[in-house]
Amino acid sequence: MGAEQTVFVVDDDEAARDSLAFLLESADRKVRAFSDPTKVVAAVDGETCCVVTDVRMPEMSGLELVERLKAAHPDLPVIVITGHADVAMAVEAMKKGAADFLEKPFDDDALLRVIDQALMAGASEPVDAETARRLASLSTRERQVLDGLMAGQSNKEIARDLDISPRTVEIYRAKVMAKMEADTYADLIRSGLKAGAGRF
Asked: Cβ(43)–Cβ(8) under 8 Å?
């Protein structure tokens, strides 16, 4: 990633914010850190950058920040960091235009890789025939599981709704990941959105 590209880190937790900034600076990334998400929208203006934001913040949620950033800067990549309980909000953030999300705790290399991929990808990719074909290959039950995942539901919640066991949901989830050729949960959600899934 070029030196002119800045990573904006947004987190109201000082320790988490400092840790992220230190990681990125150690990897030769230019960093600007913010505790107040309301100040970020104007700060990114004119910058070649991406934003890494926490989901839960008191002044403005990560979802609200994604909405405001994408409204002002449609091509700006925004990466959402979330705790396990916030997966539904992270999925919603991707529907609003976030480039990716990572669940805590995450691997340092994974974050750096996601940032670089987001900067290289730029604007959202259009729906393609191959992604639509993969979606069409899912069985009815696999599609139901995918819809549950895209709604941010846990395996237990999907199991309850479909009246099957959580272990069976795990099996279907693995099949969906394989058929959609998704390596991560975020990859799966992104592919589903591109193919028009998860529109409730």
From this structure: yes
Alpha helices in 3-137 (DSSP H): 14-26, 40-43, 62-72, 87-95, 108-121, 129-136
Tokens 């925004």, residue?
A: 78
| Rounded distance between C-alpha atoms, residue 36 and residue 33, angstroms | 9
The encoded tokens of residue 149 equal: 């995942």
Question: Model's pTM, two decimal places?
Answer: 0.73
**Residue range 3-48, pLDDT digits in tens:** 468 999 999 999 999 999 999 999 999 999 999 998 998 888 877 7
How far is the C-alpha of 107 from the C-alpha of 172, rounded, in Å?
26
Which residues make Cβ contacts (< 8 Å) with residue 130, sequence separation at least 6? Answer: none
